[in-house]
Design a protein that fits this description.
It contains three helices and seven strands. The protein has a four-stranded antiparallel β-sheet, with no helix packed on it. β1 and β2 form a beta hairpin.
Length: about 160
C-alpha cells in the first residue's frame, strides 16, 4: 500500500488533519478500480459544480443520494430479478455505490434524472466571516501626538 508522509506539512500548518486521511483513502480506493457507473465532474462557475452519473436503466425510486460528514454517496439498488433470456447483455443491471469527498463549505443543492443521466448540483458557499476583507487605510486621520511641555505644566500645577 502506498503511503505519503505529511509530517513536513503538519509542522507548519494547522487544521489540515483531514487531508492525510483523504489522500490515504484515495490511494486505497484507486488500487481497486471500479468504473461502474461512469461519471463526470464539471465546473460550471467559480463556485458551482455538477456531478453527472450514467444510471441507464435505473428509476428514480431505485436511486439514493446522501451527504454525511463531507462525503456524497450515490447508490443504485436493482431489486427485481430479470427473468429474460439474453443472447448478449451489454447493459449493466447491477447495484452500485459511488462516493465523492466534498471540500469544506460545498453543499448539494439539487439533483435531476433525465435520459439515464443523474446530475447532482453542488455549490461552494464560503461564509462571510471566512471571506477575505479589505481594510481601508485613512490618510487624513487624527494623529495622536504627545506634547512633553503640556505634561510638565500639569505636574507643576498638582505639586
Amino acid at each position: 500500500m502506498n503511503a505519503i508522509d505529511l509530517t513536513p506539512l503538519y509542522r507548519s500548518s494547522i487544521g489540515f488533519d483531514r487531508l492525510g486521511s483523504l489522500i490515504n483513502h484515495a490511494l486505497a480506493t484507486e488500487s481497486t478500480p471500479n468504473g461502474y457507473p461512469p461519471y463526470s465532474i464539471e465546473v460550471l462557475d467559480e463556485n458551482r459544480y455538477a456531478i453527472t452519473v450514467a444510471v441507464a436503466g435505473f428509476s428514480q425510486q431505485e436511486l439514493d443520494i446522501q451527504v454525511e460528514k463531507g462525503v456524497l454517496t450515490v447508490r443504485g439498488n436493482k431489486n427485481e430479478k430479470d427473468e429474460r433470456k439474453y443472447l448478449y447483455q451489454g447493459i449493466a443491471n447491477r447495484s452500485f455505490e459511488r462516493k465523492f469527498n466534498l471540500a469544506d463549505y460545498v453543499e448539494v443543492t439539487g439533483a435531476d434524472l433525465s435520459n439515464g443521466l443523474l446530475t447532482i448540483r453542488l455549490v461552494k458557499e464560503i461564509p462571510e466571516a471566512m471571506k477575505p476583507k479589505t481594510i481601508a487605510i485613512n490618510q487624513e486621520g487624527e494623529v495622536l501626538e504627545h506634547d512633553a511641555g503640556e505634561r510638565n505644566t500639569r505636574t507643576n500645577k498638582v505639586a
